[in-house]
């Protein structure tokens, strides 16, 4: 990788661009090549190059930055050292690619962000939030998907942002709620495959940690039917998130008519939670399920179950 370092230090755009393209080609050729490149610290060298070229005008360096980003998208997921380009200028350039019209560039940008966001400090997460159009670009990749990898990566980026202890956490959630993200997640969850379902539930769990997020969930007809349906039908992780969201909604319900508590009973939540305790789950989920059963039991005798398998009797916004 000395050639890449040399090209970078000399500002050799063409040389660095060609080397990045060769690295990407080698990585895609075989898993063995990819492992060798990771072992020799190639991702770190590429990240350094990206940071160096990010210091100058984006327009002047867009081609070399694009090629480096494309190579990083292939390697970073396999690099345990998490050698991501994390300078302020680098983050700004990645978001510019995220907002571009080039589908490939958008995909590469979100794949790199997926590896970058979990290791950012609070200040840089706040900075990412403040970049104009960043959240909208992530939202767009989910609302108008270009590929499964980009959709899942976008959900992971948002998951780390909404579950971060950053002071801007509430601001991030408020922005997502304003974009209509809760409704988008619930519609997605109806027919989502396992991996996508787990990620969407994880994000929804984070969003429902705030008053504004819960309020949006309370007002959507699909919330309780979808959550109850996912308790036993997807995976242990999906079950854990579903119970966690139900817990947050039910324990914060303040309406006199019982609100989501009554609806949860109607959707067969009481019986499903009982089964959950019988078959077993992790200790934290067991505690939440037990508390949920106690509060649901207050309304159980006066509510009939109207559980529906296909959501046909649920009013859905389109």
Can you describe what's shown?
The protein is mainly α. It is built from 19 helices and no strands. The protein has a domain at 192-318. It has helices spanning 2-9, 13-29, 31-39, 42-54, 58-75, 88-98, 103-116, 122-130, 134-143, 148-162, 169-179, 181-189, 194-207, 211-218, 223-230, 236-251, 260-266, 269-279, 283-300.
Q: Which descriptors would you attach to this protein?
A:
318 residues, mainly alpha, 19 helices, 71% helix
Q: How would a crystallographer describe the biggest sheet? A: none
Please provide the count of β strands: 0
Report the total helices. 19
Roughly what percent helix? over 70%
Secondary structure blueprint with pairings:
Layout: H1 2-9, H2 13-29, H3 31-39, H4 42-54, H5 58-75, H6 88-98, H7 103-116, H8 122-130, H9 134-143, H10 148-162, H11 169-179, H12 181-189, H13 194-207, H14 211-218, H15 223-230, H16 236-251, H17 260-266, H18 269-279, H19 283-300
Helix pairs in contact: 1-2, 1-4, 2-3, 2-4, 2-5, 4-5, 5-7, 6-7, 7-10, 9-10, 10-13, 12-13, 13-16, 15-16, 16-19, 17-19, 18-19
Give a summary of the structure in a few sentences.
By secondary structure, the chain is mainly α.
């Amino acid at each position: 990788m000395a050639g890449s370092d040399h090209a970078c230090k000399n500002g050799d755009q063409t040389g660095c661009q060609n080397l990045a393209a060769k690295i990407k080609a080698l990585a895609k050729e075989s898993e063995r090549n990819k492992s060798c490149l990771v072992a020799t610290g190639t991702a770190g060298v590429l990240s350094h190059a990206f940071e160096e070229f990010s210091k100058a005008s984006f327009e002047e360096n867009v081609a070399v930055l694009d090629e480096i980003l494309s190579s990083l998208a292939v390697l970073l997921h396999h690099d345990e050292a998490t050698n991501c380009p994390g300078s302020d200028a680098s983050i700004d350039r990645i978001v510019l690619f995220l907002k571009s019209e080039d589908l490939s560039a958008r995909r590469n940008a979100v794949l790199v962000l997926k590896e970058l966001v979990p290791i950012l400090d609070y200040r840089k997460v706040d900075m990412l939030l403040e970049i104009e159009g960043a959240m909208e670009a992530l939202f767009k990749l989910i609302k108008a998907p270009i590929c499964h990898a980009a959709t899942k990566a976008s959900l992971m980026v948002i998951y780390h942002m909404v579950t971060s202890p950053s002071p801007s956490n509430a601001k991030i959630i408020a922005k997502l709620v304003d974009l209509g993200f809760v409704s988008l997640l619930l519609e997605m969850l109806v027919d989502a495959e396992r991996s996508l379902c787990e990620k969407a539930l994880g994000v929804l769990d984070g969003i429902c940690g705030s008053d504004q997020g819960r309020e949006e969930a309370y007002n959507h007809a699909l919330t309780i039917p979808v959550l109850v349906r996912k308790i036993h039908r997807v995976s242990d992780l999906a079950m854990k998130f579903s119970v966690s969201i139900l817990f947050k909604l039910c324990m914060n319900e303040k309406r006199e008519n019982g609100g989501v508590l009554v609806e949860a009973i109607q959707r067969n939540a009481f019986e499903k939670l009982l089964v959950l305790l019988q078959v077993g789950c992790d200790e934290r989920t067991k505690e939440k399920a037990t508390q949920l059963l106690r509060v649901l039991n207050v309304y159980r005798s006066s509510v009939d179950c109207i559980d529906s398998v296909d959501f046909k009797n649920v009013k859905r916004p389109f």
